[in-house]
Automatic annotation (TrEMBL):
Binding positions for S-adenosyl-L-methionine per the UniProt entry: 85, 110, 133, 188
GO cellular component: nucleus
Source organism: Drosophila grimshawi (Hawaiian fruit fly)
Annotated protein name in UniProt: U6 snRNA m(6)A methyltransferase
Superkingdom, natural source: Eukaryota
UniProt key word Chaperone: no
A Pfam family recorded for this sequence: Methyltransf_10
Keyword tags: Methyltransferase, S-adenosyl-L-methionine, Transferase
């Protein structure tokens, strides 16, 4: 049986990582990546996805190889996987396509130290990005990543002064008052509930239906947790979206747990927000979900 033959469970059709990269060729080309590769007896290169350093060098190498992006991550911070971030960007491209926009402006809520979504949006699509981040080291690394790739004219990294705020600190600031509106926002929210007895202990998947993840978990508690976990974080985005209905055309967020999709859909319904849609992102063993909504009369289809 061909693995992943069902198109429904494949990566986005335009995702270049849908075709597995040739790691042997890439190891020959990229020295730092080569150092984390293991050589099998048959001469093929294999990767230990349970090793954080391997994941770092892999993501760095793929960003360079596929997008010409030079990226570094703050020590101990979240190492993003490229296939998933691309699937999200490509879905947003699809949602925005009917608008036939000449210039796209987006907000990246919690850009992390990598600033990966904003870098991809800017480099790949020339999107103008506002990257919001609350953690000081992440802000510094994100700004360095933007500067290293000479993308300052397309990406602004805004230091979020209040972790409870999503858009309000920025939109209420003087500099934002005169600035143009945005076409979308995206978010990979802090996933775990900091109020839980053991925030990282919960099993989020049914082991009988889905095998354990291949990748080691990366990221600091500050990046990965918040009160109420991803559901409360996305509910805050929904709440603040009602304050800024005109300022952002399409609001969206990723979700790490399938069961949280209906929770957010119910929350939107209770607020009489009916222009909504959802999708799934497939990356090998890992599936993620996303929801989008708009307060404006546009067609959201996925
Ligand atoms: C799960 S990480 C996602 C990082 C990156 N976007 C990615 O996908 O790899 C969430 C990020 O949101 C930041 N964050 C948490 N609350 C925030 C807030 N209210 N405003 C802006 N950033 C926030 C955290 O510091 C962290 O860097």
């Amino acid at each position: 049986m061909v693995k992943n033959s069902n198109k429904k469970f494949a990566m986005h059709p335009r995702n270049p990582l849908r075709t597995a990269p040739n790691y042997t060729k890439l190891a020959i080309k990229h020295k730092d990546f080569r150092h984390v590769c293991e050589l099998e007896l048959n001469g093929k290169v294999s990767l230990n996805f349970r090793n954080e350093r391997t994941l770092r060098e892999l993501t760095k190498m793929l960003l360079l190889e596929y997008f010409g992006l030079q990226v570094d991550f703050a020590p101990g911070s979240l190492v993003p996987t490229l296939a998933l971030r691309l699937n999200y960007i490509l879905w947003l491209e699809d949602l925005l396509a009917p608008q036939k926009l000449d210039a796209v402006r987006g907000i990246d809520i919690g850009c992390g130290s990598s600033c990966i979504y904003s870098l991809l949006g800017a480099k790949k699509n020339m999107w103008q990005m506002l990257a919001l981040e609350s953690k000081q080291t992440n802000i510094e690394y994100a700004r360095q990543n933007v500067a290293r790739n000479e993308l300052q004219s397309l990406i602004e990294v805004y230091a979020q002064p209040d972790k409870q705020s999503i858009f309000s600190s920025y939109f209420e600031s003087e500099s934002a008052a005169t600035k143009a509106n945005f076409h979308f926002c995206l978010c990979n929210p802090p996933f775990f509930d900091s109020n839980a007895a053991n925030p990282f202990g919960g099993n989020t998947r049914n082991p009988q239906r889905r095998p354990a993840p291949n990748n080691v978990r990366t990221g600091s508690a500050e990046e990965l947790t918040c009160a109420g976990g991803e559901v409360q974080f996305v509910q805050r985005i929904v709440d603040e979206s009602e304050m800024y209905k005109e300022r952002v055309l399409i609001f969206s967020s990723m979700l790490g747990v399938k069961a949280n999709v209906p929770k957010i859909m119910d929350y939107l319904r209770e607020r009489k927000i009916s222009n909504v849609c959802s999708t799934e992102f497939h990356q090998g063993h890992t599936t993620r979900w996303a929801v989008a909504w708009s307060h404006q009369p546009i067609c959201l289809s996925d």
